[in-house]
Amino acid sequence: MLRRPVFAANWKMNYGPTDARAFAAAFAARWTPRADRTVIVFPPALSLSTLAHALGGRTDIAIGVQNIWTEAKGAFTGESSAAMAHDAGARYALVGHSERRHVFGETDAQTAKKCLAAARGGLVPILCVGELLEQREAGATEAVVLRQLRAGLAGLAELAPDVMSAMAIAYEPVWAIGTGRTATPSDASAVHAAIRTALVERVTDAANDIPILYGGSVNAGNAASLLAAENVDGLLVGGASLDAESWAAICDT
Ligand code: 13P
Prior knowledge:
It is a single chain. The chain is α/β, with parallel strands linked by helices. The chain has 11 helices and 8 strands. Strands 1-2-3-4-5-6-7-8 form an 8-stranded parallel beta barrel, surrounded by 6 helices. Residues 10, 97-98, 172, 177-178, 215-218, 236-240 line the site of 1,3-dihydroxyacetonephosphate (13P).
């Protein structure tokens, strides 16, 4: 099947409401809607609502939340639920981003719960997986990535296959994030192929609808070659998504 390419901007901890509004104005002026791709912007939670309002008329630009908590509500100081993010305008949720795992200590068990919480809260989970440099050097890339993948999918196991397939995967090798060093298109392709095989085993045929994005030092110069690699269905971009012009150039790949 033909998967529509997905271009996702992860702002990480950049751009409060004022800067988010300015970005929305600049990007909306520069970016012409294209029906052949999905564009998603992940601002910090505090800027979700502002960005949603600023992009109000632009239904071609979707918004996502960078992280959610596992429960729907309650005594979880500092956290946001999927339903709250949805209410603020989000339709997607990143789950298990490298920084959540390695800076904040998020476990596979938590990513599993967050995938389910996202789906139950009306958000499409984008499960992020990726190996550390020492794991790659030890030849453990596939084992690590597939362990993270299976753990995340386990959280969705109780859903029907068609509901379960309403998700995306992002492969982001940790050593490529924010380092200026990308995986080669063929390295990315090999890992994406392993992910695809595992998805088909787990989710059956509906798995072919699940886009697999690559992330890690993607920019306007390398986006085309990465996106052309087999099994790479989209890009998850950090630093190069913060400039409206550079982000538009990537979305035009
Ligand atoms: P960079 O594009 O800045 O390397 O970040 C990648 C990333 O972590 C996106 O989620």
